[in-house]
Write a structure and sequence with these properties.
Helix content: 55-70%
Distance between the termini: 29 Å
Pfam families: MarR_2
Keywords: DNA-binding, Transcription, Transcription regulation
Strand order of the largest sheet: 1-3-2
Protein name: MarR family transcriptional regulator
GO molecular function: DNA binding; DNA-binding transcription factor activity
Structural class: mainly alpha
InterPro entries: HTH_MarR-typ (IPR000835), MarR/SlyA-like (IPR039422), Tscrpt_reg_MarR-type_CS (IPR023187), WH-like_DNA-bd_sf (IPR036388), WH_DNA-bd_sf (IPR036390)
Order of helices and strands: HHEHHEEH
Shape: globular
CATH topology: Arc Repressor Mutant, subunit A
Number of strands: 3
Number of helices: 5
Largest sheet: 3 strands, antiparallel
Oligomer: single chain
Length: 130
């Protein structure tokens, strides 16, 4: 009986995490929509705003997909949309001609900087209330 109770508690904790994620994602989408972004768009801009350990500010699509938890095909569509909006640029990877590098444009960096406090405020509010 104790094992069954522990399994149920574990399942309830998992469902609580999923519910918090869903609520937070909705709040982020709502807040970022005013700036023409969704939560996934912002996550990509946020990753691209960071310098890699080697000081470079561009990332390969595969590196981004690992950080934002999107499939490569979904990320490719998202990056294409951001590029169409002038927020990022894509180019061939110098080390591997099969790879694609993505970098923020000046417009993308400015939008990221403007929206960063909005995103962080939503995260603070949602994760503090749990």
């Amino acid at each position: 009986m104790a094992a069954k109770k522990a399994q149920q508690t574990l399942a309830d904790q998992w469902r609580d995490i999923l519910a918090l994620h869903a609520r937070t994602q909705c709040e982020l989408d709502r807040a970022l929509h005013q700036h023409g972004l969704c939560a996934s768009d912002f996550e990509v801009l946020d990753v691209l705003s960071e310098r890699r350990p080697d000081g470079v500010c561009s990332y390969r699509v595969q590196e981004i997909s690992e950080r934002v938890h999107l499939s490569q095909s979904a990320l490719s569509r998202l990056v294409a949309r951001l590029e169409k909006d002038g927020l990022v640029e894509r180019g061939m990877c110098a080390e591997d001609r099969r790879g694609v590098q993505v970098v923020l444009t000046e417009k993308g960096r400015a939008l990221h900087d403007d929206v960063l406090p909005v995103q962080r405020a939503v995260l603070t509010r949602m994760l503090a209330s749990g």
